[in-house]
Amino acid sequence: MKKTTTMHARLLRSLRLLLAALALLLLTTAGARANTCTATMTDVDFGVISPLASTEHTARGTLTVNCNWSLGQSPLLLPAANVCVNLGAGSGGGTGDPRYMNNGGRSLAFNLYGSPSYTAAWLWGSNTSTIGAKPITGTLIGLLGLGGVTQSVTIYGRIPASALAGVGTSGNVNTLYTASFAGHGTLQYAFGADKPCTTGTTVAFSFQTRATVTNNCLIGTSNLVFGTGSPLTERRTSAPLSVTCTANTSYQISMNGGASGNPAARTMRNSATGETMGYRISSTAGGPAWGDGSGGTTVYTGAGSGATQSVMMHGTVPRQRAPTPGDYRDTVTVRLTF
After folding, report:
1. From 2.60.40, 3.30.1460, 2.60.120, 3.30.70, which CATH number describes the 33-213 domain?
2. Superfamily of domain 217-337
3. pTM of the predicted structure, to 2 decimals
4. Most buried among 9, 20, 106, 242, using CB within 10 Å?
């Protein structure tokens, strides 16, 4: 009997110690944590884009909200937090529709949405938006009044094709455009299912959007056709080259000498007889020979605008001894450097 009483006493002491330790743990936990929410957003990177391609560009980011509850400060079961994630216009300025990424004084329009429909109804904004753009909202519900819950949503970025017209590069290299949302992103939250997010606490978050505009050019050629006639009298003709370069891109157009190998003394050849006939190509009517810069020839220089530019070739067959009648041709290689 005495042994049983001793065992009961030991059990009671152990239980009291366990309860005391548990109480201390709960007090420590409650004191170390409070009801809080935070928001994070990944950067939205559109990658390398070409303004010469008339297509839209899209990208995605992930918005994550985490809320934590502390014992004694929330309902024990199913505690709730109402959250509103607000976004301002960003560092590019404007009202927020569109938003802008910048490089120096250059701008690239884009926007961010809560849906891949990319419609105005899903434009990410704030509770104070003047254009009707809305915050990302939700209710986070925990399982217990001690712990936390995390939810993530996808944010959709879009650069419309119409925004690419005239977007340029700098220094003839690929150029990075960015927008910062430091100071433009806020999370509002309030604990309690019946409390609007605007009645609680506001905390900040930040991220960036970026796109690299590629330095690019395209060229199209056409034939110089002198028609039928005799070189006993001078003959002239012209035809265009088409050049499309990213805005602000400097470019040069050179030509080789064709079959003669000498751009200052080009010749067309009759494949049947082997006879040749001299001719000249210039970038201005009656101007110096257009070549590669050697032998007194010139190289055409220009600057891109983002639109297609027409660069005229002027051909001349000067007066010369008439060779055997026939078809005279030459093939010239055009080089675009940018």
Report:
1. 2.60.40
2. Fimbrial-type adhesion domain (2.60.40.1090)
3. 0.82
4. 106
